[in-house]
Specification:
two-stranded antiparallel sheet, 157 residues
């Protein structure tokens, strides 16, 4: 299957807290984020219907990924339809054994929607990933770390 033609977005505006951009510094981390690990910060729940948002930094303290978790507020098929309209056909759409992964990619950014079990809990997440910072294989580990952190901080239940 051919990749989409549209360029994938690399930033998110989180209202009064400003814009967070993949590959750039995350100055809001000290005032806005709750530190989950040395390079992972959780943002307040509620943005865009999320139960949690995590900002993952690379070793240079630049934004490597943004992970959005939804707890019953979004429908997988509706989300995929919206992003299919914005980005075109996904590079990968994989549905197997109760898990779904839909992935779009351009030369610098990967965008993924995932629904399935993570650390024993059913989740729906989307991830904006800086391809220079995070490999495909690292996304599962990120998803598990974020899920654990959101659960500990009282986000998704």
């Amino acid at each position: 299957m051919e990749a989409q033609e549209a360029e994938i977005f690399r930033e998110v505006n989180i209202g009064p807290f400003g814009v967070i951009v993949l590959g750039e510094a995350f100055p809001q981390r000290h005032s806005l984020g709750t530190k989950l690990a040395d390079n992972v910060f959780l943002l307040p729940a509620g943005f865009g219907g999320t139960s949690g948002i995590a900002v993952v930094l690379d070793r240079r303290s630049r934004v490597a990924a943004l992970v959005f978790e939804y707890s019953g507020t979004q429908d997988l098929d509706d989300m995929v339809s919206v992003y299919r309209e914005l980005l075109g056909s996904p590079l990968i759409e994989h549905r197997l054994g109760g898990e779904t992964c839909v992935l779009w990619e351009d030369p610098v950014t990967r965008f993924e929607i995932f629904e399935g079990a993570v650390v024993g809990k059913r989740v729906l997440t989307s991830m904006m990933i800086d391809r220079a910072s995070v490999t495909v294989g690292e996304t599962c580990a990120l998803r598990e770390l974020i899920q654990l952190g959101i659960g500990q901080k009282g986000g998704a239940s």
